Amino acid sequence: MSAIKKFSHYIDGKWITPKGYEGELIVNPATEEVIGELVYGTKDETRLAISVAKETFKKWSQVSIPKRGRYLFELHHLLLENKEVLANLITLENGKSFSESMGEVQRGIENVEHAASIVNLMMGDSLANAASDIEVTNYRYPLGVVGCITPFNFPMMVPFWLFPMAIATGNTVVLKPSEKTPLLIEKMMTLIEKTGIPNGVVNVVNGSHEVVNELLENPEIKAVSFVGSKKAGEYVYKKATANLKRVQVMAGANNHVIILKDANLDKAVFELINASFGSAGERCMAAAVIAVENDIADLFVAKYTSAAKKLVLGNGLKEGVFLGPVIRKEAKERIFAAIQTGVEEGASLLLDGRKKGLNTSGYFIGPTIFDHVTSSMSIWEQELFAPIACITRINSLKEGVDLANSSEFANGACLFTNNTSAVRYFREKIDAGMLGINLGVPAPLAWFAFSGWKNSFFGDLHANGKDAVEFYTHRKVMTARYAEDDL
Ligand code: NAD
């Protein structure tokens, strides 16, 4: 029998065998086969990574900005060459379909494209004639060591939201990926090695709470980027700010969709099938709650349910599969219980995904649709993170917007309509940071900030876009007198 694969940390360009005692098995969620074993990193291992990153920062921050950009071009090239390999690893460890994994890899690559244009992004502003003989100039500098903590649902895209821009701006990084999905990151480090990016610029410590706590407490960590659930995000934000760190927390979500009676229903169905059930609903931009105007609600429900019934469930590596498994047995059990709660709360269960998930190996749940959901139900209020869509019926756009605005979350929101005045009303009144018009909840491209509001985000500067440059740098503003009298 071959020995079980063990995952290592990656510190200072070396693969380090973890010394801890606790850990977990890494399982392919489609087959329940064990891929390997991940031993949680310890405080000491995290401290080692931080001290290496601190030492490396002295030199890396002095590497010219165009040269840092060129390293990212090299990474871009290697990612393009390895697209299929990377997508395969994502499906293997996360379960999403191969085509979704390819989409995720593409999103990661776009983040590297954004970071590679760092020269333009780092330029400061100056004012030649601020006062008589006075010039003012703004210079950007990196912060130091940045801690990045990421979730399981996008093993590639989310780490790529963070570390490329952190290092392009001149920082060094200690990354703690999700303890459930270490495969993609392991491959990523082998690619980073090939770019020539110096050892110690990007370090990975696998693990769980102990690693996170060290990143939140260690005075050498100058900024923390976190992506994950609201519960963990709140903890991270409070602890890191209490330790006087710069923090950005992209947290949980429960996204709202509004469909007006003038919308093209077939197009709305097409978009929302993907947005509700793609990645088995394990997306912070999943279309979880769909509010439909009464006049067209029955027709929408019929078309949507019929389309959902046709979705192919299975191992994401197989051709034609749309819906893969959820991440773990515990997630499946939690979702089964949530469906039961929805029934007990009085929602109409039109499509019960539990049936397709019974007696299967792999953590499968079919698409699930509830109709007549109300905002007093827990299935409306909570982030289910599941292939579950909750339909609610509304009389007007205003009612739909007010309903969505009563949610504690405000990540994405969508409107389906051909009425431009409705679009404007929606844009002005909805409490959400990322809007879609006639599109399933769209995650903004790398060049725009990932802009959650309310309990979907804690902090002020978001990931991606120009915010990322602001978050990972601080400024010096120099005011100088250059007087003609001194000539
Ligand atoms: P999670 O919060 O369980 O884990 C995220 C990270 O935090 C992991 O690295 C984990 O090890 C760590 N962590 C978890 N609990 C912790 C604790 N108590 N103390 C210290 N560290 C802890 O999230 P997940 O289940 O991996 O991912 C799903 C969640 O992520 C969903 O809520 C989803 O909405 C959210 N998410 C949000 C965004 C966004 O941009 N807003 C993007 C992707 C995912």
Descriptive terms for the model:
globular; 487 residues; binds nicotinamide-adenine-dinucleotide; alpha/beta; six-stranded mixed β-sheet; 17 helices; 22 strands
How would you explain this protein's 3D organization?
The protein has 487 residues and is of the alpha/beta class. The protein has 17 helices and 22 strands. The chain folds into two domains: 268 residues, Aldehyde Dehydrogenase, Chain A, domain 1 (3-Layer(aba) Sandwich), CATH 3.40.605.10; 183 residues, Aldehyde Dehydrogenase, Chain A, domain 2. A seven-stranded mixed β-sheet has the order 14-15-16-13-12-18-19, with helices on both faces. Helix 14 links the parallel strand 15 and strand 16. Helix 2 packs antiparallel against helix 4. The protein is globular, with a radius of gyration of 24 Å. The termini are far apart. Nicotinamide-adenine-dinucleotide binds next to helix 8 and helix 9. It is an enzyme of class 1 (oxidoreductase). This is methylmalonate-semialdehyde dehydrogenase (CoA acylating). Its EC number is 1.2.1.27. Keywords: NAD, Oxidoreductase.
